[in-house]
Write a structure and sequence with these properties.
By secondary structure, the protein is of the alpha+beta class. The chain is 26% helix and 24% strand.
Length: 320
């Protein structure tokens, strides 16, 4: 009787479990993954069974070919591993009886993204298949404590800049921002230093300077070693805001130097850019054209500049 009681209990529990499983939503069938196709700059390890002298590690050349002993050049770009193995085996049949060929891709050179800026391991990373922004940042060791996550960008080609709020992605789990990356993309995460100003143009020591608690335009220029003899002090420019829609304000500091008069809008804010021009500035668009190469070098570094070379200059709003 005790055994029957235990059996009934087991059956009851089992029936409840079956009911629970039936109530669960049906699992979606796994989407078939598209098989990887060999690309330019991929590194392949080609092995021929029982013929170690034919084993090679090769890089797919710009023309899409690899070089194999006995058979020479073989076009493999665009082929799956299976198709490439069969092609190499077919070529070897003239020299080897029933060759068994294995090909493995050890480095996906044609599918590379760069992650630069405030990450723990900046650099270039190769990947197979698809990679997302979150995966790329993870491959780079994650963001550092100095990262300005809200202003991260993805540079694509020479014309496209995609702004992404990585804070929303990483900490608020907004997966809509986890965009798929394309080969050649560069992810850049700037730093979060909010107590600096940039002093560029006709100054003796252009660069980045600490804003401190309070800094005027003239004081910032003094920090940069003062102005040069070619400086136009009547049209010193303060550039404020991001590079997409900056605001440019002109300041005449010659009055302050000669007469002690306080110019309008002379107090600086974090990340302001003070640009001392050379000669008369007829068009303020010219200021940004002159400024952009220096500014991007300081803020982004050379690698990020190359990622955005060719991008048209941003729009400008002007405050006289």
């Amino acid at each position: 009787m005790k055994r029957i009681g235990k059996l009934n209990l087991f059956l009851s529990v089992f029936l409840v479990f079956l009911v629970f499983l039936a109530a669960l939503p049906a699992a979606e069938p796994a989407a078939p993954s598209s098989e990887y196709r060999i690309g330019i700059e991929d590194t392949l390890v080609v092995s021929v069974w029982q013929h170690a002298d034919l084993n090679v590690t090769v890089v797919v050349g710009p023309d899409g070919t690899i070089s194999m002993p006995l058979v020479g050049e073989i076009a493999v770009k665009g082929l799956t591993k299976q198709a490439a193995q069969e092609l190499v085996a077919t070529k070897l049949k003239k020299y080897v009886k029933e060759p068994v060929v294995t090909i493995n891709v050890t480095e996906y050179g044609g599918r590379r993204v760069r992650v630069l800026g405030q990450v723990n391991t900046p650099g270039s990373f190769t990947f197979a298949g698809q990679i997302t922004l979150l995966e790329a940042v993870s491959r780079a060791g994650g963001a550092t404590g100095s990262a300005q996550l809200h202003q991260s960008v993805v540079f694509r080609g020479t014309e496209t800049v995609i702004e992404v709020d990585l804070y929303e992605l990483l900490y608020k789990k907004n997966l809509k921002l986890d965009i798929p990356l394309q080969p050649g993309d560069t992810v850049f995460i700037p730093d979060n230093i909010n107590s600096r100003v940039f002093v560029l143009g006709e100054v003796k020591n252009p660069g980045i300077y600490d804003l401190g608690g309070h800094l005027t335009v003239l004081e910032a220029i003094a920090k940069a070693g003062s102005y040069t003899e070619n400086a136009n002090l009547r049209q010193v420019c303060i550039i404020r805001g991001d590079l997409v829609k900056p605001e440019i304000t002109q300041v005449n500091i010659s009055k302050q130097i000669l007469k002690g008069a306080v110019p309008k809008n002379q107090n600086l804010k974090p990340n302001d850019i003070v640009f001392v021009p050379k000669g008369i500035v007829a068009k303020l668009n010219f200021v940004l054209d002159q400024l952009s190469p220096s500014l991007r070098t300081i803020i982004l570094g050379d690698s990020a500049i190359k990622a955005i070379q060719g991008k048209q200059g941003p729009g400008i709003s002007i405050t006289p």
